[in-house]
Amino acid sequence: MPIKGFAHINVSTKDLETSRRFYSQVLGLEDGPRPPFGRAGAWMYLGDQPIVHISTARSPEPNPAKTDAFDHFALWTQDINHYRQVLKEYSIKNVEFGVPDNDQYQIFFKDPDGMEIELIFRGEEARLASQADGAKTDASFGRNL
Question: What is 71-138's CATH number?
Answer without folding.
Answer: 3.10.180.10
